[in-house]
Design goal:
The chain is an alpha/beta fold. It has six helices and seven strands; from the N terminus they run H-E-H-E-H-E-E-E-H-E-E-H-H. It has helices at about 5-15, 25-30, 50-60, 100-105, 120-130, 135-155, and strands at about 20-25, 40-45, 65, 75-80, 85-90, 110, 115-120. Strands 3-4-5-2-1-7-6 form a seven-stranded mixed sheet, sandwiched between helices. It starts with a helix and ends with a helix.
Length: about 160
């Protein structure tokens, strides 16, 4: 399945809702060249009252519902539309990253479908997966680290 049309609609809705969020996880890694797959989009955002209102607007724009998973007392907001195969998780905190501001200071702003999208740096994605310690995160670490090394080799030194 090509996730690009779905991601383009997510990015457009983020922009229309005015919700600042940073794409993290395997989707962000794949955009940066890592040969990984995912079935969802993970974002870090600030869970302020204003942003929660924007998250509700985002969910309306993608014709989805917001779920609050309870495992184990999670702060995650899951936006789902089963008909479209959409699952987007919004988290105010992620393992291995100190804050939204620190993540954003290293993130890259890209253009996708004519809209802007912030994507996390591979270094932060790797740190988050390592800190989470889940088997599914550990399974992709070697691939992400190899992608990072290749990316560093190919980028011009300043």
């Amino acid at each position: 399945m090509n996730a690009e049309p779905l991601l383009n609609s997510v990015v457009a809705a983020l922009g229309e809702a005015g919700l600042e969020a940073i794409l993290i996880g395997n989707a962000a890694a794949a955009i940066q060249g890592a040969p990984v797959t995912t079935v969802d989009f993970d974002f870090m955002f600030r869970a302020t009252p204003a942003n929660l209102a924007k998250l509700k607007k985002f969910a309306r724009l993608v014709d989805a519902v917001i779920l609050r998973p309870y495992y184990p007392v999670s702060a995650l907001y899951r936006v789902m539309n089963d008909d479209r195969g959409l699952q987007a998780d919004f988290m105010p905190a992620i393992h291995g990253v100190k804050s939204f501001n620190s993540l954003r200071s290293r993130a890259e702003k890209i253009s996708l479908g004519g809209r802007s999208l912030w994507i996390a740096n591979l270094v932060d994605i790797i740190a988050s997966k390592r800190a989470a310690g889940r088997a599914r995160d550990q399974a992709v670490l070697e691939i992400l680290e190899k992608t990072l090394r290749e990316k560093e080799k190919s980028s011009p030194k300043s």
